Structures are given as structure tokens and as C-alpha cells.
Amino acid sequence: MDTAKVAVIGAGISGLTVANALSTASAEVTLIDRDAHPGGRSVFYGCKAVDTCVRCGVCLLRDAMSELAQNANVNLLLSSSPVSFHRREDGGFELGMQTRPNPIDWRQCTSCGYCLEACPQGAVKQIPGWRFTIDTQVCDECGKCVDACPASAIQLHREPTRTTVDADYVVVASGFRPFDPAVNRKWGYGSNPRVIHGTDLEHLFFEEKYLPRDLIEADGKMAFIQCVGSRNVMEGRSGCSRVCCAYALRMANRIKEEFPELQVDFYYMDIQSFGRNFPEFWQDVSGKINLIRSNPISVKTGPDGRPVVRCEDPDEPGCRESSYDLVSLSHGIEPEVDSAELAELIGLDVNADGFFREADGVGSDGGVFVAGACKRPMRIDDSVEDGRAVSEKILERMREASG
Amino acid sequence: MKLLLLHCTESGQKVLARLPQIGYRLPSTVRTMELKCTGRINEELLLSSLEDGFDAVLVVGCHRENCRYLDGNLRAERRVQRIARMLADAGVMDKKVDMLLVGPDEGAKLAARIAAFLAPGAEPAAGAETASVPAQSGGKK
Amino acid sequence: MQGVSVVMCDFSCQPRKKVDCRSLRKELAKAGIQVVVAKKPCRQGIENLDDLQGEKVLFAGCPLLEENGLYGRFRERFSAAPANFLDLDVKRSILDLYDDAKSIEQALSRSIKAHARILEAKEAEATETVKPEAKVLVYGAGYSGLHAAAALCATDVSVDVLETSGPTVSPGCLAEALRNRDAVRKLRAAVEQSQNGVFIPHRNGVRLSALENGFHMRTGDGMEALYGAVVFAPERVEGPCAEEGALNLSALYAALERRQQLRGITAFLLDRGRPSTPEVVRDVLEAAKIIRDAHRGEVWVLLRNVQVSLQYQEELYGDCRDAGVVFVKYREDLSLVDDYGSFDIAGHDEQVHTAFSIHPDRLVIPQIPRLPAEAGVFAAALKLRLEKDEYSQSDSLWNLPNDTNRTGVFAVGSARSGMIPTLIRQDVSSLVAAVEERLDPAGFAVEENIPVVDADKCVYCLTCVRVCPFGAMAKDPEQGAARVIASACRACGICVAECPAEALEVRNLRREALFSAVEALAEAPDTRPPAAGSPAAGPPAAAPTSGGDS
Q1: Are residues C298 and C225 both part of a single domain?
Q2: What is the rounded distance in angstroms from the CA atom of residue A24 to the CA atom of residue A71?
Q3: Best of C70, C429, C435, C440 to mutate (most A CBs within 10 Å, chain A)
Q4: pLDDT tier at C446 (50, 70, 90 boundaries)?
Q5: Any idea what the Cα angle at residue C222 is, between residues C218 and C226, rounded to 5°?
Q6: Average pLDDT over residues C67-75
Q7: Secondary structure of residue B129 in the 3-state scheme
Q8: Domain A179-333, classified CATH 3.50.50.60, yes or no
Q9: Are C161 and C191 in contact (CB under 8 A)?
Q10: Cα B51 from Cα C207, distance rounded (Å)
Q11: Which chain B residue lies closest to A113 (C-alpha atoms)?
């Protein structure tokens, strides 16, 4: 096969899977991400195993990141977004990319960490399995990091650049956005610090804290609320987000392991089964948590400052109110903020929920593929399977093209 | 107190790389040795390590059902348990063996266990929990 | 100590650099070790690699080389030649180098020498390449197997399909098979009509043995063939209901296929005893809708959880409700009374908090699908690790999507996980990629450091054969010893640990080398006094977080 060029938009788990799978000698892959690091959102998620793997998939991502680090055939274009998209007459594509380079040049960074020590604002972030980046929203440009860096990798003002990426095939793997519970005051997110969401909890898991220890004691009381932003026509998302039962139950299981005296209430409508060992897992976890089959009406703040969950009482007519030290809203998956623009730019169809329709390089699309959670909610293991399937479809096209 | 960390290439090596990221530096009395899989460890190695001068051996491997080689970590668990029992039965109080199952990010878990080993008078868990080794041939487990 | 070279970082990134590379180089040179100092290898790579004279190469540097994956890249570069990484001791020493440079250098040079001694004891290896036979055996001529076979035939590889007497469709695909009655037949025709697809009847058993370049099969009819890859794709079958008179899902679909009139009340009972899987629920919903639309019978679906995470399942529930299907979320107190083949079901509906009771003419209770006995025997012959509920792929993340515990054996479709047709089509795509990779005409390289059997020591107990998770050990009756199937071995070392006769050795870490390495570690001096249990916060370090309990 001649060397085919593939542009992968999005370096999250599915983009990484596609890039790693295709970057054999017969494909030259350009992996693009708007962030200053690869790995997407799940790079900040944490392992949920309690000595036995629960298949959360976070280690799959770590593996994909190390594979990327050792992969010479992948051309990584970070801090970049496509601004133009042009189909050539010969069937190939030209993507105009705009790059806003991060102050830290990842090619020079040796991960020594001096910049993190030097920064008084906390603007320097260490990306797991990667290097350091600077959050320009937080940075006040004092320049202490520039002085501290022994590799001279930091320059506070970098000029945006424009490049063109040529590709025979394009894979859109731009991922998802978690539902923001702050848009609906009833959840109390943002107004009460004791109300957090699933992604906040994931970050706590990654840091191995498992709970915000300043808000809740080991024998405190917490609640998980499922279906926040999912299965709710009024919130604009009638579909199931597929990932939330899985992550919340796994996290509840891990939290109970760490804090056996903690009371965990689990508010749900239905439980979506996941994985091949679900019956055993469910048997195990359902005995440790207090299942309340009711979708809460609101999370208000009580007179003592603690959140109060109000719901329809599942057992008796009427409502019930319970007060907690911590409430975790299991928020769901939505299309990315800019997915409509990206769809228009590339010419992708979008379904009623705003996700991209499957494009398998056939018909008028010819050459554009879609992988991962940008087409429908999926877990990390689903994303890996999807990425592999999309890679094969491209390999098939490459085989046909070379005759 | 000299501690030998026998770890696998998968989780073991990754979790050691995580330690500097959480601000933990391995004390100089901790020595590490990498193996492809903890399944490579046998009782002889554990005992001879203790004889060579290590006061404790901590085997660091992957979570159950996450071993790349399927049951290497389960075998290591069983072996470590066996040696821990032998040492306890023989009344050996100043030598310890234990196994820790970790994922690639669980640096704090490892750091805590190492600290527990090195703190004077610490009694680490007497061997890991009972693991089940799957049937050798195909068919139902 | 001839033949060992050390490539060392110059540590110039550390502003308080204290490692005197020059004097270290002199000392090591005295011991006959070539030292090459590399400038900033983490950024600039290493230029003077071709100058290395040693047959064995050691890299010495700080943990950053590990974290950035640079060691991995060097491994690639040196994959043709023996290489090793001086990690561990040296890394620990480097972190302490700000405290006592001189003793660090001594420890460094001592551990480099110790490591070099270990390397000397190792044998050089050549990298073997195995070219597998370009032929695939597909076990299972059902929906999954035929999809896989048809897709593989389209890639010009030679495919033999081993026919089975099991069902052609598993739960999850029953509705599709009903809608599209020709689906299986068309797939079969696609395979038959392709130049490279052949059906083999599975009578009188098969015997399989693993060879270097594939699997050798001999059928009871005397047919023999060699396959580079095996695809295990049986369909799973539902057992009968424990309740006499109740139907399982397959029996209901058989009735629908016969166009049997299903009037009266049909009740589906899900989630009894254990949660139903989403693909079974899909088939239940489709059947419910058909019975309402086409047969105008009354349909009740009794469940505990509404499974909506599969694509389009939410819409299907909606369609069923629109068609008049009654959904009941029942509580644990459901009572099912079997009255000589007719049933009384009573309980409480959790959604509307009312009691309900029905007397259905037809009760459908989906059963957990299992592998047919024949498929189980084939799996056992292949030493495949099955999962609980007889999924034909053990539930490890590292097997995703189509790998099994045996190299060269793949699992696809309904037998590896509950699937609906769209998922099977996707699964077949990734299977084709995996098989293509396996059958690459350029061959694949055998793992480094696979074990070697010492035939003199081997007592032929075949513990290694039983113990190998990957089926990579086999009998060698002529030698009276075990033999390694190099192409299947993953070099984990489990057999080495298990062999009671110590007849197995892994090439890069022989027993003596392993023990002496540990001894060297124990003897290496402490390079600084232990810091009374508290973690030091020297560079490189992020701000201390919850890590490092003291």
C-alpha cells in the first residue's frame, strides 16, 4: 500500500485508538487536539478497582497514551482546531488548522516540574502520562516559570500559527461534553459547594482522595443522584447517557471500600447493566448502598448549609427530604459545545440529539469517518472497540485504493 | 529497614513513575526490581531476598482480572500468602512479605504501604486476601 | 567486562548538577566499560549510537526518560541488539545526587558494574519471525460466524467454516432474523460463492494442535488442514424454562416465525433472579411490538429495570408503549403461581403504586444463553478461557475487542458478548483488522526472551503445559520434554516460576542472574540516611498532595 495520510480530529481515547492502530508503515497519521495535551477528558479520570478490576477502562487510556509516546509515525498537533475544510478534486482533504500554542512547548518540556513549583497562581497543570501545560485562563504572566524552566521550554506569548494538513482520510473523534448541572438551579450545583458532579468525583479518584475530605467525614452521609441531564425531556436530553450507572456504581463501590462507615444513598430511576460480569458486581454493590428508586425533584440548601434532596417518596404517598454532607450529581454525556460548528465545517449530519451521524466513508462523504462518543454516548471500553472498528474500515478503503 | 519492591512492568512500573508526580520520593532503603509479570516470582526468590539482607519484600502487581498475562498476579498472591504464613508459623518476626495490587495511578496507595512497612513496629497485613486461581484448561472457570 | 557500553545522560538540566561524568567515565573505562555521555537525551535523543562498541548496551538516566517514553523509543532502536536499561538503583541514586555526589558516583559505578556482570551471563538472541499459514478457520456457521467468514473472504484470505449443529442466531439477533429471514442464507451464499470460502461439516469431532505457524486440525472424517488463525464464533442457545409451560425467547420467536397466531395475553417476565442483558431486552421489545401490531394480542412486559443504554432502545420502548404494550416495574414481592401450565402472576407496580394481577395465556421468560455443548468441547480443545455464563472471551480489558487467551484465536459476535446486529457488524470489522494483522505476509516477530527448556532437567510432568495461560507450551514426545510454541508465548515467566524441576529459563533473566541482581541490590549501600519516614520534597516533584503518608 502507498502511504496514506489520515487526519484524526480529537486525541481522546477513541482518537488515540484510531491513531495508534493506523500508524503502521502504511499510514501517516496526524493527530489533532484542541487541548495542549492528548488524552481528552478521561486522562483525568481515576481507577475504580478494589483490588479486582471493575473494567472502568482508565488503564486502557494510560496504555494508549504510552503507546502514543513511543509512536514515531504519529504527527501530533496540539492546541489546534480546524478552521477550514476543503475537499480536493482527487478525493483528498485539506484541513486548515489554527494552532494557539501553549506557553509550554511540549517538545522541549522534560517534565521536571520546576515550573509547577515556581508558579504562585496554580496555573501550571501536570497532565498524567504527559508533560506540563499552563492554563492561560489562570496565568497572570508573572514569568516565574520562564525563569525556573531549565529546558527553556516556556514562552508566555506565542504567536498563533496556521498550517494545512493534507489527508486522504479524516476521522472525527471530537468527543463529548459532560452535562453542566449549573444550567438548572434545581440541582444546586455551583450554589452549594457540597454539591459536586461525577467529573469532580473522577478527579478526586485520580488524586486518590475519593471524596472531598474537607466536606465530609468518614462516617458522613452522601448521595448519588443518577440521570442528571439524561432521560429528561425538559432538560433537552431524553436519551440515556449510558456511562453514568457504570461510573457511579463503580465509584460508590470504591468509596464504600475506603470509607465503610459512610452512608451512601443512591437515587435512581433504572439501572443500566454494563459489562459481562454485571450480575456479580450488582449483587455486591447493591448490598453496600442504600438504593432509593426516585428521581429527585430538587437539591436545595438547608438551614445548616447542607444540601437537602427532595424527592417523591418511593414507599409512601408524598415527598421525602433528606439532608446530606455531600451530593454527587451523576451527569451525562452531551455533544461538544462546538459540535454544530464542526459538523457544518466538515459536512457531517447531526441527529436530533446533536451527535454526529455515523459516517463510514461511503457515499458522498467518502473518506470521512466518525469515531467515539461524538456520535453517541459510550464508555471507555466501547470507545476502544469503536475506534478499532473504524480503523479497519479505513484499512479496507486503503486496501481497495491500492488495488 | 531494607525493603525490596518486586514489581511488574505493567502496573508496577507505571505506579513507580507516578510517585514523583505526587511528591513522594522513594526512601533510599527501598530497592526496586522489575519483572515482566509478578507471576515470575517463586517462593525461592522471596526467601533468598530475605536472606540477602532485605527485611521485607513487597510484591507490587496488577489488580485481579487485570493482569496482562491473566493469572500471574493471582499466582504471586498465593505464593506471598504462603511465605507469609510460613514466616509466621516459624515465629520469624523481623522479616515480612506482602503483596499489593495496584493500578497505574495508585501512587498514594503504594506510598502508604511502603510507609507502613518502614515505620517502626508496623505490622503490615499478613498476606493478601485469598485469590482464586482459574482452572488450567479451557471450559468453564 | 568486555563488550558492555553505557550511554549516560549528562544531567545538564539539573542546575545543581553534581555528577561528575568525566571522572565516572574514567573509572568505568578502567573496568573496560565504554561510557558515552549523551547531551540532554530526553530532548535531543542520542546521536552517537553508532559509536557504541559494546554488544550489550546500558542506558543510565533520570526517571524523566522513563516517564516520557524515551526508554521505549530506545528499546525500539535497539530491538535488533540486546539492550538493557539501568533503572532502579541508578534512578534512586540520581534523585539523591544533590546530597552526596561522591558516594552517588561510587554507587552508580558499582551498580553499573553489577548490572554488567548480569548482562555478561545472558545469551545473545536473534529475533525470530514467524509466518503464519494464510488460512482461517471459523468455528460457527451462525449469524456471527457467517458475517465474519464473509468479511474475511472479501479480504482474499482462505476461509474454512466449521459447521455446527447449534442455533444459527443468538438472543439479541432474534428480531433481526425474523425481519430478515434470508439474512443467514444470504451470508452463507456469500461465503459459498466466494473463491476462498469452504464449509466443513463438524461430525465425529476434531483434533487440534498448536504449531509455530498456526493450528493443525484433523477432523474425524480424516480431513487435515493448517490454519494461521482461528475465529471462535458459535451462537449461544437458551435453555428451557424451569417453569413448565413457559416459553423461552427463542421458542416465542420460533412461534412468530411459524406465523402462529398469538392471541390472548402474552406476558414477558424479565429480571427474575438476575438483571436481563440489554440485547435480550431488545428482542423482547421487538417481539412485544410485533404481537401488538400484527396479532392484536394483549402484551405485558414485567421488568425491574428499563434498559435504555443501547442505541435506539429508548425509541423502541416508546414505540411499544404507543402500540399499547403494558410495562410493569414489579417489586420483589412478585408471585408467580404455576397452575398446570397456566400462570397467575401478581405483584405491585412500582411506577404507579398499584397492585396488579394477570393470568396470561402465554408466559415468556428469557433464559441466559449458553454455549452449545459441542462448542464447549471445541473451546476446551483449544484451551480457551471462557468467562462466566460461557462468554467465549475472558472478561479482561486487555482482550478487547477480539482477542482470547490464545494468540491466533479470536472471538467475535454473540458468543463473546451480548450483541445486537449493528454491534456484530462493528465487531466483525475489528475482527478482520486483527486477523489481517495476524496473517501479515511479512510475519510477526516472536517475543523477546521466551523461555528455553532444558531437556535434561525436564521431567515431563507437563505442569508448564497446564499452567500456561496462553497455551504456548506443548508436549514434545520425541524429546520427552516440554516445548515452547514461540509464536504463542508472551514471555511472562509463569512457567519458569511453576516448573518443579527448574528446567525452564527465561533468556534475559536466568535464575542466577535474577538472584544475583537481588543480591546486588541488597548490598548496594544507602546513599543517604533514611529521612525518618517522611517523604522528602526535592525536585522533580509536584506540590505534595495526599500522597506519601508518613
Answers
A1: no
A2: 9
A3: C429
A4: confident
A5: 35
A6: 58
A7: coil
A8: yes
A9: yes
A10: 49
A11: B21
* CATH superfamily of the domain spanning A4-101+159-175+336-402: FAD/NAD(P)-binding domain (3.50.50.60)
C170, C121: one domain: no
Fold of A103-158: Alpha-Beta Plaits (3.30.70)
CA quadruple B7, B10, B13, B17: dihedral sign: negative
Alpha helices in A207-338 (DSSP H): 244-258, 278-286
Nearest to A86 by CA among A100, A74, A97, A98: A97
Query: Does C512 fall in a domain?
Result: no
What total of structural domains would you count in chain C?
Answer: 4
List chains adjacent to chain A, taking adjacency as at least 3 C-beta pairs closer than 8 Å.
B, C
Residues C73 and C152 in one domain: no
**What residues of A are in contact with residue B62 (Cβ under 8 Å)?**
53
Residue C548: inside a domain, yes or no? no
Domain around C295: 240-366
C194: CATH = 3.50.50.60
Calculate how close chain A gets to B120, using CA atoms only, in Å.
24
Location of each CATH 3.50.50.60 domain in chain A:
4-101+159-175+336-402, 179-333
CATH at residue C466: 3.30.70.20
Provide the whole-model pTM: 0.86
- Residues C112 and C35 reside in one and the same domain: yes
- Looking up residue C25, the CATH number of its domain turns out to be 3.40.50
**pLDDT digits (tens), chain A, 403 positions:** 468 999 999 999 999 999 999 987 678 999 999 999 999 999 999 999 999 999 999 999 999 998 998 887 899 999 999 999 999 888 899 999 999 999 999 988 888 888 998 999 999 999 988 889 999 999 999 999 998 888 889 999 999 999 999 999 999 999 999 999 999 999 999 999 999 999 999 999 999 999 999 999 999 999 999 999 999 888 778 899 999 999 999 999 999 999 999 999 999 999 999 988 899 999 999 999 999 999 999 999 999 999 999 999 988 889 999 999 999 999 999 999 999 999 999 999 999 899 999 876 554 457 899 999 999 999 999 999 999 999 999 988 888 887 6
Computed from CA positions of residues C258, C259, C265, C268, in that sequence, does the dihedral angle turn out positive or negative? positive
Window 59-88 of B: residues touching C by CB (8 A cutoff) are 65-72, 75, 79
Question: Chain A within 8 Å of B124 (Cβ-Cβ)?
Answer: no
Tell me whether residue C531 is in a domain: no
Phi, psi (degrees; rounded to nearest 5) at C142: -95, -165
Q: Which chain B residue has the Cα nearest residue C506? A: B40
Q: What is the DSSP letter of C318?
A: H
The model's confidence at residue B139, banded by pLDDT at 50, 70 and 90, is: very low
Judgement on whether residues C209 and C148 belong to the same structural domain of the protein: yes
Based on the domain organization, do C47 and C102 belong to the same domain? yes
Contacts of C493 (CB under 8 A, 6+ apart): B35, B36, B37, B39, B40, B72, C451, C506, C509
CATH no. of B3-118: 3.40.50
Residues C290 and C432 in one domain: no
Nearest to C64 among A111, A270, A282 (CB): A111
In the numeric block, which cell numbers belong to residue B122?
508496623
End-to-end Cα separation, chain B, in angstroms: 42
Select from B25, B64, B66, B113 the residue whose CB has the most chain A CBs within 10 Å, as the one to mutate to test that interface.
B66
**Residues in B touching C75 (Cβ below 8 Å):** none
Is C546–A276 a contact, with Cβ atoms under 8 angstroms apart? no
Judge if C360 and C379 occupy the same domain.
Answer: no
- Cα separation, A328 vs A201, in Å, equals 8
> Min CA distance, C535 vs chain B (Å)?
6
Rounded to 5°, angle at Cα C392 from C470 and A254 = 85
pLDDT digit string, tens, across residues C190-243: 999 998 999 998 877 788 888 888 899 998 888 899 999 999 999 999 999 998
CB atoms C72 and A126 under 8 Å: no
